[in-house]
Amino acid sequence: MNVREPADQLGYFQKRQKEIVETIRQLVELESPSDVKQSVDRVGTVLASRFSELGGKIKFHPAEKFGKHLQIDFRPRGNKIKPVLLLGHMDTVYPIGTISKMPCRVSKGRVWGPGVLDMKAGIALALHVIEAMLEWNNGKLTRPVTLLLVSDEEVGSASSRAITEKLAGDAAAVLVLEPAYGLHGAVKTARKGVGEYTLQVTGVAAHSGL
After folding, report:
1. Is 97 contained in some domain?
2. How far apart are the first and last CA of the chain?
């Protein structure tokens, strides 16, 4: 099956919408706050198994305080061009137990739950897109693809930064797996930066009061 036209590709995924939503639900219900290493590692293990079934080469990068960063490589034999890097993260900001108070659900064509937007839906999409591309091209990709899923994005990416920069430098392009945003499904094309400042103030300490 070789699907080339965008309309055909859209139809393909529309037919598999329930399957994609189920993958999102499974990932969301695997709670993975940044500071609970074993929980993030559990997500990594599940994803490694899924991508390995598609033929991806699995590599875990150890991290002392956080979960292991997951790298998956798809290298078509004889293809020497630079890979496309798909970049995402497995950790979320939600503490363990959030899923019981805010369960994953589907309502009015939308998926709700802790970590759906940031960014387990994006990881699910990467999985199903690679699966589709393999199906469309007789079991092999037309160019190398690397997927990097880090475990510490929500806390500054200190332990994954060097890995990300190295793989990004080796890639022809980098696509960040941020899913569509908000109730209108807007495509994300840029993100705000982060600034840190240290202020030194001189004067007399005082407190206003009654």
Report:
1. yes
2. 77
Whole-angstrom Cα distance, residue 152 to residue 35? 8
Phi, psi of 120 (to 5 degrees): -70, -25
What residues make up the domain containing 123?
6-176
Buried b (16+ CB within 10 A) or exposed e, 120-136: bbbbbbbbbbbbbbeeb
The size of the chain, in residues, is: 210
Other CB atoms within 10 Å distance of the CB of residue 114? 22
Edge-to-edge strand order for the sheet containing 173-176?
Answer: 57-61, 69-74, 145-150, 84-89, 173-176
The total domain count for the chain is 1
Please determine, for residue 1, whether its predicted confidence score (pLDDT) is greater than 60.
no
- Tell me the whole-structure pTM to 2 decimals: 0.88
